[in-house]
Amino acid sequence: MRYISGVAFAVAAFILVFLCIPETGVIYTHDTQAYEYAAETFLQSGTMRYFGYDTPIIQWPPFYILILAVMKFLGITVEKGAAWLNAGLFAYLVYVSAVYLFENLTVKVLSVPALLLLTLSVPLIYVSGYGWTEMLFIFLAVLSMVLILMYLKNRKLSYFVSGALVSAMCWLTRYIGITVIAALALVLFIYEKPVADKFKKAFTYGVFSCFPMCLWVLRNYLLSGTFTGGRQPGVYTLGENIELSLMVFNEWFSYAIPEILSASLVYLGLLVLLAVLVRESKKGENSLPTPDLSANLLITAIYSAVLLYTATKTAMDGINNRLWAPVYPFLVFAVVFLMDGLLKNIERRSTKGLLAAGFIVFAFVFSINPALWIRNEGFPRKYELLGIKEAPAAKKHSFWSWRLKPLNPRKTHW
Predict the structure, then answer these.
(1) 3-state secondary structure of 55
(2) Is the N or the C terminus of the chain less surrounded, counting Cβ atoms within 10 Å?
(3) CB 231 within 8 A of CB 314
(4) What is the pLDDT of residue 285?
(5) Between 397 and 48, the higher pLDDT residue
(6) DSSP string, 72-111
(7) Do the Cβ atoms of 137 and 146 come closer than 8 Å?
(8) What's the farthest any 2 CA atoms get from each other in the chain?
């Protein structure tokens, strides 16, 4: 069942992405142009350069740029290659999530509403339409968590090593990937046994997953005297960033009919209350939440705190869909594992089944607004000429009129 469901939802996710991407390919932005230029200069001179300034890339980690370089080396255009990459990563994310959920949920049927909420995801479909790092980052973050949790359950060294490797790639995709590593190191410390292994495994995971980025930021420091590039003071207050965040969540969940969000949340609250009232505590039951629930809550909390802090302390784009998108899968998993934790201690199968069915109803009702967003905002992008450099908006940018000049690889000034 897990594989059939996984494939079905993965195919649906893949199709949805292509229904919401311009026919000409992913949408170009300033960042997309910078990634592509860095990939071109890497192929030409072995150094990643920032267009217009003849300076080395420091503002972003290198992994996504290296992927684009491979595409260009193989003769694949970025606008088409990134579209297939985003669609494939979204589909594989859904498939991995299906296997993970069916494997770890006590009430297996709860996997279906979780997969529905993932597939009909405003933030994931939104970022999949652009030539950005977000879809790669989100996939690697989720896969990192799944592998570390599988290690805690099966104690297979291969899961631990794979988890550390994927976590390293996650941080090499976006600097904020450190939040995923920090959260998973905490999970290892909390749930690893015996006590001596808590320190050993958390430390080992941290060292191996951080080592590649340490090399990158050392390179940055030698080139520019900064670890991640110069940053100006923030222009938004914490209150303004919270307000911008609420606007993002409002678009995700109450896009067209806010009353549906309110009604579905009240309904979910009633389901949770009923589950709490009828559940029975078992003798010797562990007071700690499950590793699955803890991991998802920790990643969500640490990422959110770091995002709000950095958006307040340093100058960056106003908080938007793109910046909050990585928390979405972990929010879905957290809610589902919370519900599963309540249902698993209900003795009567009929009561448990009724509450599980109620959660499925919640997911379908809750998905109405995201489905409307996809219809009204996602599908129309299919016919907009935003995915090619020849589009009217892109033509205005002087970058595309430049020709690459031979670069001096020894030139390391900032």
Answers:
(1) strand
(2) N
(3) yes
(4) 61
(5) 48
(6) HHTT--HHHHHHHHHHHHHHHHHHHHHHHHHHH-SSGGGH
(7) no
(8) 73
**Cis omega before residue 113 (within 30°)?**
no
CA distances from 207 to 167, 198, 212 (A): 11, 14, 9
Type of residue numbered 202: A
Instruction: Taking residues 16-35, report their average pLDDT.
Output: 92
Contacts for 259-268: CB closer than 8 Å, 24+ residues apart: 260/365, 260/366, 260/368, 260/369, 261/366, 261/369, 263/365, 264/362, 264/365, 264/366, 267/358, 267/361, 267/362, 267/365, 268/359, 268/362, 268/366
% of the chain with per-residue pLDDT over 90: 77
CA distance 22 to 5: 28
Mean pLDDT computed over 247-254: 94
Residue 51: what pLDDT? 81
Q: What is the model's pLDDT at position 395? A: 40
Contacts of 22 (CB under 8 A, 6+ apart): 129, 381, 382, 383, 384, 385, 386, 387, 388
> Where is 50: in which H helix or E strand?
strand 49-50
Of 197, 113, 134, the C-alpha closest to 160 is 197
Average pLDDT over residues 45-69: 91
Distance CA 57, CA 38 (A): 7
The span from the CA of 183 to the CA of 295, in Å, is 7
CA-nearest of 60, 342, 330, 329 to 183 is: 330
Rounded mean pLDDT, 161-177: 97
> What's the whole-model pTM score?
0.91
Cα 395 → chain centroid: 31
Helical (H) or strand (E) element with 56: strand 55-56
What's the chain's length in residues? 414
In 3D, which of 27, 28, 30, 34 has the Cα closest to residue 48? 34
In the block, which residue shows the tokens 């640490």? Answer: 302
Q: How far apart are CA 7 and CA 163, in angstroms?
A: 23
